[in-house]
Design a protein that fits this description.
This protein is α/β, with parallel strands linked by helices. The protein has helices spanning 21-29, 44-49, 57-63, 96-119, 139-143, 160-163, 166-176, 185-192, 220-223, 243-252, 266-269, 290-295, 316-323, 349-361, 365-376, 380-395; strands at 5-10, 34-39, 70-74, 77-80, 126-130, 147-152, 179-182, 198-200, 229-233, 257-261, 279-283, 299-302, 328-331, 344-346. Helix 1 crosses helix 16 and helix 13 packs across helix 15 (365-376).
Length: 396
Amino acid sequence: MKGKDFIITGLQSWDIPIGSNAIDIAKQIAVDNRVLYVNSPLDMMTMYRNKPTAETRRRLQVLKKHREPLRQVSKNLWVLDFPFYIWSINGLPDGFLFDVFNKTNNRKIFKYTKKVADELGFQNPVHFIDNDIYRSFYSKEILKPALSVYYRRDNVQPYAYWKKHAVRLEPKLIRKSDLVVCNSPQLAAYAANFNQQSNDVGQGVDLSAYDPAIPFSIPADLKKIPSPRIGYIGDINSMRLDANLIYELAKSKPSYSFVLIGPEDKVFTSHQLHSLKNVYFTGSIAKNKVPEYMSALDVCLNPQLVNEITIGNYPRKVDEYLALGKPVIATRTKTMELFSDHVYLCSSLKEYDAAVEKALKENTEENRNGRIRFARSHSWENNVHAIYNQIEKYLK
């Protein structure tokens, strides 16, 4: 697909310091098409109650007229920030009152977006909605795009911010979108209940930093930790990770080192994991250090809790682990079955215990190369082509 115009409503700010599906998709689409990436406008509560962050700082500067709303970041790619704020409405009761204020916010957002898109000469744009249930709910009626595509990359309904209104509104947004694309079979199966034009397009991952040919050095804080190092890298979050499973696994293998790399939530900081001598917490590390730390692990883990948040989740970190050729052990879910030829999938402590031994024993050059090839097939180029295929199929 070439020469088209895309407007992408980003749930995550372009300036967010961590990885973002919508941003990576925008960059890939912009190789052959024009893209306007629309940052969410700040609401009043964020403006006045929260301290500026890397994610909000530029939007605040635009609000104060210190920067221009529109910036061009590459030949075919523009990012739009809004010179105004919107109402903070999430605390309103679900129903009529929320809908009135949400429609007001939507009008403000998309009238301005349409004005900027027209000034850029955009014609018949495709609107790609990145899981943005509230701020893009009325976008189709206001923006009137050639095609409205809802991208469901996460089940956000169980989260505190979303649960009050998203349970009612997300099915409605799915139903009125022309096309729905999802990054896992479970997310697509849910969407298909409301829109038959719902498809799993898989996941893309930027693996440019995860090159097994790079001679990574072992970080100083891991050098003193004895091998074998069995580790996890990412947010150490009790809504997603099974703390008790990790504890029992580490306790059953006192001669192995278990390394947890990343920021902990309150449940983990107070968990009895901290009482085990063979469990090590490194704290947060810089994003550009992740491949270096990952390379120092002998076996990589993704010990998820199985719940409504994780059941359809596509874990990008597993592709990153595999891209470095690492043996990987993960909790079995339907989505993880996609990795079954290259990942040890487990449903119990006993299976995890056995998988650690197998992962260390079977870490052959042939298996290592197979993992790398498999991970490399999940490129953003391939993922965006899958999205293009669904768009073209719908238009035909």
